[in-house]
Amino acid sequence: MQETGAEVEISNLSVSYQRNRETVAALSGVSFRVEAGTTCAVIGPSGCGKSTLLYVLAGLIRPQDGQSLINGRETQPGRRETSLILQDYGLLPWKTVWHNTILGLVIRREAAAAIRAAGEQVLRQMGLWEMRHRYPAQLSGGQRQRVAIARSLAMRPDLLLMDEPFSSLDALTRESLQEALLDILQGGGLTVILVTHSIEEAAYLGRRIVVLTPHPGRVTAVLENPRAGDKHYRQTEQFFRLCRNLRRILEGVYHTGTNEYTARSASTRRNAGR
Ligand SMILES: Nc1ncnc2c1ncn2[C@@H]1O[C@H](COP(=O)(O)OP(=O)(O)OP(=O)(O)O)[C@@H](O)[C@H]1O
């Protein structure tokens, strides 16, 4: 893993797709920053372009307009230190936990000893070492997601992009995975951008929370959330206030396609829980 994590800056980003001669605008004029070593949660209604945003950051899609910078450089496809975890975990069913975990390192042709050391370290870190001989079909959803995270961490990323990583898990498994992610972040050196539908997840994990409007996605609010990362935060009044605040913003977004906060908050950062 890199020392400080990546710094991400997105400015005035617009993306559209061509579908049957029709242009579908997915993102419009999206701008925000994520400081190195912090976590940013992106939340918004279905179809507002959250996955599209991650694809741009992963270098899989080129925006029609605007810029996406990682450590001051324009995003390029195949950046080695960027890792993307998709919704369906992306594990190969015919490979064991061990071989799924080291897959990226093998593709990179790293030395066998380095692969063994990295594989063991991340599997132990994710509590999967004893399960290394199992196949994905022999794992629960939560364990599969742990393998997907282990595989990403093995690549020593400085930027981890997660697309609704815990959405298909039951509430308690989801919470234990969120806490595992916080443990990983304690180690430093990693910036995380996480797309989620869950208000609680955004509030628990996102040091900064970016709220998007329905499609095309525009930034309607950017909330600062300084207590994110504290494991006791979930039980605090400040956390509940932030969730209520986020819910109000999202209700506005869902009902009107925009909301009363738009004019003020797209450019003004507001503190959480007010
Ligand atoms: N390959 C594509 N071709 C055409 N339109 C697309 C394509 N991919 C996405 N879109 C459209 O772009 C918009 C944004 O899609 P995207 O998947 O980024 O949204 P999302 O916020 O991640 O959605 P969800 O929360 O449902 O996963 C949607 O209107 C979607 O239908």
UniProtKB/TrEMBL annotation:
Record-linked InterPro entries: AAA+_ATPase, ABC_transporter-like_ATP-bd, ABC_transporter-like_CS, ABC_transporter_ATP-bind, P-loop_NTPase
Top-level division of the source organism's lineage: Bacteria
Pfam assignment, any one: ABC_tran
Keyword Nucleotide-binding: yes
Keywords of the record: ATP-binding, Nucleotide-binding, Transport
Domain ABC transporter: from-to ranges: 8-239
GO molecular function terms listed in the Swiss-Prot or TrEMBL record: ATP binding; ATP hydrolysis activity
Protein's UniProt keywords contain Transport: yes
PANTHER family in the record: ABC TRANSPORTER ATP-BINDING PROTEIN (PTHR42788:SF20), TAURINE IMPORT ATP-BINDING PROTEIN-RELATED (PTHR42788)
UniProt name for this protein: ABC transporter ATP-binding protein
